[in-house]
Amino acid sequence: MNVVFKFKEVSNALGTRLLGAKVRETLLPLIRENDKVILDFDGVEVVSNSFADECLAKLLFEMTLEELMQRTTFVSVNDYARRNIAIAFRRRLQAL
């Protein structure tokens, strides 16, 4: 089954590690329990490096990048957020 996670329902500005950790705790069971989780960033203006690392890149502690890519899809991500998400994943992968 596919499920959509709308980040806008959390906030239109995703900035802190604390918020990132809280959202990751919500996302992880969704990813594990569903075939595909659509990570919908429609309406989100800002995703900081800190939030992206804590919420998304730290999922790599729970699964491989390949599994994460198979189980999630990112949609409606603006260029600023996309860049910060990519940086967070790159840094986390280098640290593993």
Please characterize this protein's 3D structure:
It is a single chain. With 96 residues, the protein is of the alpha/beta class. 51% of the residues lie in helices and 19% in strands. It has four helices and five strands. It has a three-stranded parallel sheet with strand order 1-3-5. Strands 2-4 form a two-stranded parallel sheet. The model has no long low-confidence stretch (mean pLDDT 97).
Continuous helix count: 4
Strand count: 5
Cα gyration radius (Å): 12 Å
Overall outline: globular
Strand content: 15-25%
Enumerate the spans where pLDDT stays under 50 for 5 or more consecutive residues.
none
Helical amount:
40-55%
What is the oligomeric state here?
single chain
Q: Let me know the average pLDDT.
A: 97
- Alpha-carbon distance between the two ends: 30 Å
Q: What strand order characterises the main sheet?
A: 1-3-5
Order of secondary-structure elements: EEHEEHHEH
Q: Name the structural class.
A: alpha/beta
Question: Major beta sheet, specifics?
Answer: 3 strands, parallel
Please name the defining characteristics of this protein.
96 residues, three-stranded parallel beta sheet, alpha/beta, two-stranded parallel sheet
